[in-house]
Amino acid sequence: MKFATEFRDPAKAKKVLAAIERTLRGIELPENRPLHIMEVCGGHTHSVFRYGLHELVPDAIEFVHGPGCPVCVLPMGRVDDCIAIAERKDVIFTTFGDAMRVPGSKKSLMQAKAEGADIRMVYSPLDALDLARHYPDREIVFFGLGFETTMPSTALTILEAERDDVQNFSMICQHITIIPTLKALLDDPDTEIDGFIGPGHVSMVIGIDGYRFIAETHKKPLVVAGFEPLDILQSLWMVLVQLEERRAAVENQYARVVPHAGNPAALAAIDRVFAPRDQMEWRGLGMIPQSGACIRKAYAKFDAEKKFGLVPANVPDPEICRCGEVVKGQMKPAQCPAFGKACTPDVPLGALMVSSEGACAAHYRYARQGLPEQSNAALDA
Q1: So where are the chain's domains?
Q2: Residue 182: which H helix or E strand, with range?
Q3: How far apart are CA 333 and CA 322, in angstroms?
């Protein structure tokens, strides 16, 4: 298939759904619950709700929304760190748009901007570097946020800043890594996951071998998936085939984009600029060892935390906010007592309601009052 519309073909979707139903008959289901299939990536969560896939699959299957949305696991204390630097008079603070509305303990970056801080949304770290060249008398700080998907671009930007000797550019490094996170998730005794739909964008960079511990140690199938409805349905069927055959392997449905070994040039840039961080705080998940990145000593002059003497803040989530249980698959968004009440997309309490890839935002938009025309209608058109 060559065009996006082909990946949304209702006739093809019905054939895959029929195959899913047939395969289910050969699987021994859990005694007191449906099969829990975690879609790790927030982009998959958005597609599941947008196209109504959670309504199309049999009741014996339940999609569980994973931690693969970097904005969704951004801790409140880290937002406070950003605001502390952004409110300095000599700083122009730059960030991607999704991070602007994530609540800190007192305010968001958007609110700090409204109060007078010079905070600007950019589309690339190179945009921030260009600002540093245009405003040599100001300190330009970029908020480096994301999984391995965005790490190559920030690494290459730091390398370019080094090459051009740009002195007034630095970065707060909030890059996180997917493999240690999945290990922590599977080590949690309360986690009940039967199989994984693996992240496509991250895998485009890191490849698929890093997931083998899921199959070899934890005996769970994982299929790296694309983001269109047929991608997700086919990946779900591939997971079910493994369960039917009582085996666990790492498979790649998204081979048109994801190479087996990932992107060697991107991985080399990441390794050159970044080192593993001993501990990384995740919103709702706490501290996870080796799950984040920091800037290597060779590029310390571009490390905003060192440049500004930042002491990281540690702020607990509001007690009513249940983001942690949602990203671990232990709770559905609508089961959170704040969902749709104290926490809405207009006034978010938790990060899962902010990001377009957040499970709560997707559930609020597409599934809160039944499926709107964007969901099942997208497959029936």
Answers
A1: 4-68+192-252
A2: helix 178-187
A3: 8
